[in-house]
Write a structure and sequence with these properties.
Residues 106-133 are annotated as: Disordered. The protein is built from six helices and two strands. The protein has 133 residues and is mainly α. The longest helix is centred in the middle third of the chain and has 28 residues, at 35-62.
Length: 133
């Protein structure tokens, strides 16, 4: 029963784009019983979310659906994404998706970073680069 619904959602996601694709894949992953299928779907969610964020950053840069159709700055996009302005610029102009560095995600060398480490706060003006993560 769930397997059929999972596959239907995955097929619908294949025809969808942006946030709709993310939502459909997430619903499929939530229903997946097979752990390997769940992993596959979760990785597709992560990829789709990065691509949707990239599309949204492009729309923000063009000013689509923004007050006064005013284009967003990379600083504003970075603040919204929890990234520094420079990282948001590099990722939007050089990548197909916006991705958060491993350290920002709480992962370092495959292990969870201790909760005592304070994350970088780009919204508060912390623009230190995360090198080697």
């Amino acid at each position: 029963m769930f397997a059929d619904e999972v596959e239907q959602l995955a097929q619908q996601a294949d025809r969808a784009e942006g946030a709709e694709r993310v939502e459909l894949l997430a619903r499929a992953a939530n229903l997946a019983i097979d752990p390997l299928r769940r992993i596959q779907l979760l990785m597709q969610v992560a990829d789709a979310a990065g691509r949707a964020a990239h599309q949204a950053a492009g729309a923000a840069r063009r000013g689509d659906n923004r007050p006064g159709n005013e284009p967003a700055t990379y600083e504003q996009i970075g603040a919204a994404a929890g990234l520094s302005r420079d990282v948001a610029y590099r990722q939007h102009t050089h990548g197909a998706a916006l991705a958060w560095p491993a350290k920002r995600r709480g992962v370092h060398n495959g292990r969870t970073v201790a909760q005592t480490e304070a994350p970088l706060d780009s919204a508060a003006g912390d623009t230190r680069e995360e090198v080697g993560v």
